[in-house]
Amino acid sequence: MIKELKEWGKSIGIAIILALIVRAFFMESFIVDGRSMEPTFYNQERVLVNKFIYNFREPGFGDIIVFPYPVEEERILIKRVVGTENDQVEIKNGTLIINGQKVDENYILQGYSGQNFGPVKVPEGSVFVLGDNRNNSIDSRNNEVGFIPVDEVRGKTFFRYWPISNINYFTINTLEG
């Protein structure tokens, strides 16, 4: 009986250590907070984020990333990358324009409410992010957020696991660019 308990204790200890290593270096769970990514993600949904991928490449056009809110570091934001370094980003008459090309945004909740923005050039080592619910999103258009330094990005969303009815695996960028 004692030997069996020791084996169980070892197994549980190893499992905890492995879980901590996975969370620290490979993936982490986040809760979507708010409506800014509707209809892609809804408030209180749970997602897994790949923390390892950006050791091999920079965030790309269409990646859905998580990063700390610059004015409230403990708050994590989830947004879509629409501009990478040296891209020119503009919103004109409700249309997103990247490097002079209109972007078909079939994933957004609704069109822009007549806002114009930019053009701005994304600095080196940074990305420009927008929420999919453009009329209800604090994102790179806001001075508090601005351009997101790549080294501040926590990871790329790759799996929604809650609610169970909305389980979804994100295999590639969801934007055509």
From TrEMBL:
It is an enzyme of class 3 (hydrolase). One of its GO terms (cellular component) is plasma membrane. One of its GO terms (biological process) is signal peptide processing. It catalyses: Cleavage of hydrophobic, N-terminal signal or leader sequences from secreted and periplasmic proteins. Keywords: Hydrolase, Membrane, Protease, Transmembrane, Transmembrane helix. Belongs to the peptidase S26 family. This is Signal peptidase I.
